[in-house]
Amino acid sequence: MKTVLIFGGSGFVAKHIIRQLAKNGYKIVVLYQQPTNEAELKFLGSIGQIIPIKYKSIDSELINKLIKDANNIINLKTSWDEKTRSFEMSIFKFNQKLADKIIKTNERCQLIYFSGLGVDKSPLSLRSQSILKSEEYFQNKLINCSIIRPGIIIGGEDNFLKGLIPLFKISLLIPLFGNGLSKFQPVSIEDVTKACEKIILKNIKGVNVFEFVGNDIYTYREFYSLISNYFNKKRYFIKVPLSLVKLVVYFMDKTPFSPIKREQLKLFEKDNVASNQHKNLKNLGINPQDLKEKIKKIISKNL
């Protein structure tokens, strides 16, 4: 039985990938650091197929052994704030050590690294800088590496829609950060999952960069209007200056109750769309889903 090792394997995207790979008979080792529901993860596959392991540091001998025995490694681990460690430490240094361990113990192993759209166009974001440095290190050091830059991922349980739907249900006024004209290109979780499955099943070699996006590009105002129409409710969008939002988030980010991180807020400041300079879903034989229908179904379940 082939083994897939997943870092950051307890989140929304990881659970979908785990469920799909389990159907293909893979043994899946899920490495996590934050508290998670191990029983829930185990139920995504058959008995003994999914093995959750809590670890403290990538420097442990256990991690060395797991990397040595893995056929594929998926890294979904990331960070959105610097409360405990800098982005340089939590993102880049972690990825640097991961690459070095792969080179030393299992150099032909295939790594799939989840990055993000526009990391190469965000020089003012320390988080994006650390992710971009990680990408470059992987590309320069590893033999087999697929870097995935997804748009905002939509799937019902995703953080994006999960945060918006309750607000649209109860509030007549919807805050629109900035002018609401920044563009983004979302993608469905099913398409992302299928793509990861294909990269692994086809055992794609070499160094590759993929941009996973859907067919439609929205401004935030257009997307909010779409949600409002599907709820069949009149909603009024109130422009909130980003300078004011940044000030509020700056103070809230120092508490455990902040609904949005400063780094997440930066997504509203610029367009978040494909560059069309890299491979995409169609290179893997996947035609992106119609997200309008998907969003409509998700909202109908919340009416």
Describe, in plain words, how this protein is organized in 3D.
The model has no long low-confidence stretch (mean pLDDT 88). The chain has a domain at 3-154 and 187-213 and 273-288: NAD(P)-binding Rossmann-like Domain (Rossmann fold). The chain has an eight-stranded parallel beta sheet with strand order 3-2-1-4-5-6-11-14, with helices on both faces. It has 303 residues and is of the alpha/beta class. Helices cover 41% and strands 19% of the residues. The protein has helices spanning 12-23, 38-42, 61-69, 87-105, 126-141, 159-170, 189-201, 220-231, 242-252, 262-265, 291-300; strands at 3-7, 27-32, 50-54, 72-75, 110-114, 145-150, 153-154, 173-177, 183-184, 187-188, 207-212, 218-219, 236-240, 279-280. Helix 8 crosses helix 11 (291-300).
| Computed Rg | 19 Å
CATH class division of the domain at 3-154 and 187-213 and 273-288: Alpha Beta
**CA-to-CA gap between the ends?**
44 Å
Class from helix and strand fractions: alpha/beta
For the record, the CATH architecture of the domain at 3-154 and 187-213 and 273-288 stands as 3-Layer(aba) Sandwich
Please summarize the sheet with the most strands: 8 strands, parallel
Helix content: 40-55%
Question: In total, how many beta strands?
Answer: 14
Kindly state the mean pLDDT as a whole number?
Answer: 88
Low-confidence segments = none
**Strand arrangement, major sheet:** 3-2-1-4-5-6-11-14
Order of helices and strands: EHEHEHEHEHEEHEEEHEEHEHHEH
Tally of individual helices? 11
CATH-assigned fold name of the domain at 3-154 and 187-213 and 273-288: Rossmann fold
- CATH superfamily caption of the domain at 3-154 and 187-213 and 273-288: NAD(P)-binding Rossmann-like Domain
Write down the overall geometry.
globular
Strand residues, percent: 15-25%
